[in-house]
Amino acid sequence: MTVPQLYYFAIRGLGEYIRLLFTDNGINFEDIRFVSRSPEWKEAKKSTTFGQMPCLKHDGKEYAQTGTIMRHLARVHDLNGSTEDDATFLDMFFEGLQTREDLVHKTLPDCLANFEKLFNIHQGKFIIGDKPSYADYILFEELDVYTHLDATILDKFPSLKAFWEMMWQRSNLKAYLEKRKADGVWISVVENGMH
Fold it and tell me: 170 and 163 in contact (C-beta within 8 Å)?
């Protein structure tokens, strides 16, 4: 079996969910990063299914689209809940998180209030209990991005804040997150002024 190869830009963005899942679960992977609009990216783009990233290549297969990659990894690595209801709940949570581009000052607090309620449906420190799922990495990354927009954004949402703080302390993630922070990894291409 080969080591999975993740192709994405040298930013956090949509590829970061996948990096977090791999890192926290101790899954070895090759993190191939490109500078946006670079000659290397233009060449690599020709070999991807949709000409987009993130792209995951593993054992001669290629997976495109963030949701597809996350769900694939969730099934392969048992991070998709233990029942069909769990898997559907995680899908609902994941789909609800994919609204970053549409967020405005009123929308974000409303969304967080909804996720605070959803988060509290199941007992445990993760979305559906005491074991992480693929949706936990997406939720964490989104919350981390939101704290960059407003450092106090989670103060009114104690369950989400406790989850975010707990994820920062996970042994496999902590060093990666600290390095990412110290390296000043951009959240998105727009943040870097490369849009």
Answer: no
Cis ω for the linkage preceding 54 (within 30 of 0): yes
Element (H, E) at 177: helix 171-183
Backbone angles phi, psi at 151, to 5 degrees: -60, -20
Task: Evaluate if residue 8 carries a pLDDT over 90.
Answer: yes
Give the DSSP H or E segment for 96.
Answer: helix 84-97
CA dihedral over 97, 109, 176, 194, signed as positive or negative: positive
pTM of the predicted structure, to 2 decimals: 0.67
Determine the pLDDT at residue 189.
42
Q: Is the pLDDT of residue 17 over 50?
A: yes
Dihedral angle sign, alpha carbons of residues 18, 192, 180, 183: positive
What angle, rounded to 10 degrees, do the helices at 84-97 and 134-149 form?
20
| Band of residue 190 on the pLDDT scale cut at 50, 70, 90 | very low
